[in-house]
């Protein structure tokens, strides 16, 4: 009986966290697994590159990319930024068992308040940002990145960034992938 009670409380807490504006300002929804290969290709993994997943969710993209980089013996760095405490727990557990964990950093933070410059400068000369966030936050995120970093590329899943239209390349998977 006590077990059922705690299970109920746990479920309630999880639902609360996932529906709260504070812990989940942009709802959690993973990229479609069927598009994963196309996404990895779009990220164009290289040496001296740092890849950010802004709002990394359960790490579907970042861990697959880190695995590919490990197999190709690249020394690409990966940073997963997440705000939801449950997803952070999952990210940290997955990182612990990952073959390329030395190149993966999990950061608890708000993507709109991050100091990207501090995170990139010493590690790599090219930053790539993977975004799968609500479309109305894309321009805000871009302007935050632009203010801090000179050389970067962006891969946006499902939603285009209007102000970057001229530089846009589209890969059509189950959902479109926009590369800038
Ligand atoms: C649509 S999901 C994408 C998950 C993952 N990138 C993927 O493609 O599978 C958006 C994620 O962003 C996280 N998130 C929302 N607002 C955030 C913020 N301000 N700072 C950091 N992460 C945030 C959510 O918790 C959620 O996991």
From TrEMBL:
Gene Ontology molecular function, alphabetical: protein-lysine N-methyltransferase activity; RNA binding
Pfam family, one: RrnaAD
Entry keyword S-adenosyl-L-methionine: yes
Gene3D superfamilies: Vaccinia Virus protein VP39
Highest rank taxon of the organism: Bacteria
GO BP annotations, alphabetical order: methylation
CDD domains: AdoMet_MTases (cd02440)
The protein, known as: DOT1 domain-containing protein
